[in-house]
Amino acid sequence: MRLWPRSLAARTAFVLIVGLVVVQTLGLGIHTLDRNDLVRLAGLRVYSFRVMSMYRDLVEVPPAKQDSRLKTIPLSKNFSARLTDNVDSDFSNLLPTPPPVRHAILLNMDGFPIPPELRPQHFRFGFDPSSRHEYTALQMPSGRWLIVTSRLPRPDSFQGTEFLFAFILMTALAAAMTIWAVRRLTAPVRTLAAAAEALGRDVNAPPLPEDGPSETAAAAKAFNTMAGRIRRFVDDRTLLLTAIGHDLRTPITRMRLRAEFMEDDEQRGKMLQDLDEMEAMVSATIAFGRIASPNEPVSPIDLAELLRTVLDEAGDAAPDIADQLRYEGPGHLTARVRPQAFKRALTNIIGNAVKYGGSAYVKLIPPAREVRHLKIEVLDKGPGIPPEHMERVMQPFQRLETSRNRETGGVGLGLPIARDITRAHGGDLTLANRPEGGARITLTLPV
């Protein structure tokens, strides 16, 4: 069970709410202790007043009539009183009354209006913890003792359910305000993350607004500056590759014309083949350079229909293995992509499977509820790729023995172009060998 949240907003809110609960709990504890003291002192004051009132009523009558007078004094449910000549046996099994309680009772008794000659001669205090009864004995001028017993109630720490409900409601409201404030304060972080994700898909993504707090505005300005530098770098690279390709095509064309006039047929054929490879390399390099600076807009397309179209085109190009081309998946599935670029990526992947696996089994897996991306798997029945070469074939201009794609002229750009196009859409492309033989190319795409 993971208690520590993952997001910055959740962690900040969690720390603040825990601190709030701790402070609220400590405040509640201090309030409860203070209130309990006040309630206890008030209860002791009432207790002392009642004891002294009863004592005064008794000492104002002759000793012979004190017993009968005691019977006429109304007592509450938790109160009892009796007269005795000796209190030793009554207090032998009692605990001493805590000093704060004893001092509070004596202080209240001292302030009670009673003539000095009638005041108690001696006091005895005791406490029974099992029944929570307080025992107070006062010796009258006649020498007899008045023993008063009262059960002291426990203080109600929360003043009933209303106080506890108010405390919980106040804490919940404070927690809700904390969560709201933290989400507002961390919203620029989420905006920055979304902008970085958008920049990874499209270098021409709109810039961030440079407003809000000074730190947020500074971060947005730095991000926009970085995005501008990336765009200039990509544009410069694309311009450079286009210029090189344009400049190379002219001498290649001249060399092709000169080769046509060569008398040696064998040398002429080799020369033309080399020129074809050079022209294919130039075209593929320019195409690879333009991937990072896409001008094609994103639009919704039927991905299932696009996969079937690419398979049909592969079957037309290789009719002898048309029966080895299969599609599995939903009849229709809409996704937002750059249609021409994404079709090229699928053509490269499926063409790679056809050329070196002699088959292409395409599976379209729709996104599940808890997963926000779809999958396209292309399986073949070929020999697969040695594990030590898995990373190599995904690098530009890297090949195994022969070309793995006809369209790029066998210069090792088929899979790299497909992966870069996929990543430009926010997805990824991975390569693995199947246990039963052949390769599996998995393309993931966010939805």
UniProtKB/TrEMBL annotation:
Main subcellular location of this protein, as a coarse class: membrane
Membrane-spanning parts? 12-33, 163-182
Q: How does it sit in the membrane?
A: Multi-pass membrane protein
Pfam families in the record, alphabetically? Answer: HAMP, HATPase_c, HisKA
Arranged from A to Z, the UniProt key words for this protein are: ATP-binding, Cell inner membrane, Cell membrane, Kinase, Membrane, Nucleotide-binding, Phosphoprotein, Transferase, Transmembrane, Transmembrane helix, Two-component regulatory system
Q: Where does the record place the HAMP domain?
A: 183-235
List locations, semicolon-separated: Cell inner membrane
What name appears for this protein in its UniProt entry?
histidine kinase
List the lineage, top down: Bacteria, Pseudomonadati, Pseudomonadota, Alphaproteobacteria, Acetobacterales
